[in-house]
Amino acid sequence: MVKFSDIYQIIRFGIVGVLNNLLGYVIYLLLTYFWLDPKVAVTILYPIGVLVAYFSHAKYSFAHQGKHIWAIGRFFSSYFLCYWLNLSMLYLFSDRLGFPHQIVQAFAIVMVGGVLYLLLKFFVFWRHSTEDGK
């Protein structure tokens, strides 16, 4: 059974994610419109977005109270995996299949966001973890 706290957490994750990704997507569109290749733009924006997202999700989405040293390592690992998923989607659907990169990236944000939520909930910020990362 789904608990209210889980629904509330998903809503908080969504709000933080929408705000972070909306800003990132607007910057992505500007960078690709003026001069950058889409994959280069994603590569530049990912580290910036990850830092903003870590502190936002740790505080607001998951109310993390543990040591940041362990959570941030797992967080960066999760984002690295999602980065490769995002790049793979751009490569496959835009470069190989010819879909517009703007549309592919918009869908990638949603798809990667779902994967990321699961990683953050069950790997990065899970409530019963110990501080030694076990």
What is the topological layout?
Elements: H1 4-34, H2 38-61, H3 68-96, H4 101-124
Helix pairs in contact: 1-2, 1-4, 2-3, 3-4
Characteristic key phrases:
disordered C terminus; 134 residues; mainly alpha
Please summarize what this structure is:
The chain is mostly helical and 134 residues long. The protein is built from four helices and no strands. The chain has one domain.
Main sheet attributes: strand count, strand direction, barrel closure: none
Strand content: under 5%
Following the backbone from N to C, one meets helices and strands in this order, namely: HHHH
| Estimated helix fraction | over 70%
Your description of this structure?
- By secondary structure, the protein is an all-alpha fold.
- It has one domain (4-124).
- Helix content is 81%, strand content 0%.
- The chain contains 4 helices and no strands.
- Helix 1 (4-34) runs antiparallel to helix 2 and helix 3 (68-96) runs antiparallel to helix 4 (101-124).
- It is elongated and about 40 Å long.
- Residues 128-134 have low confidence and may be disordered.
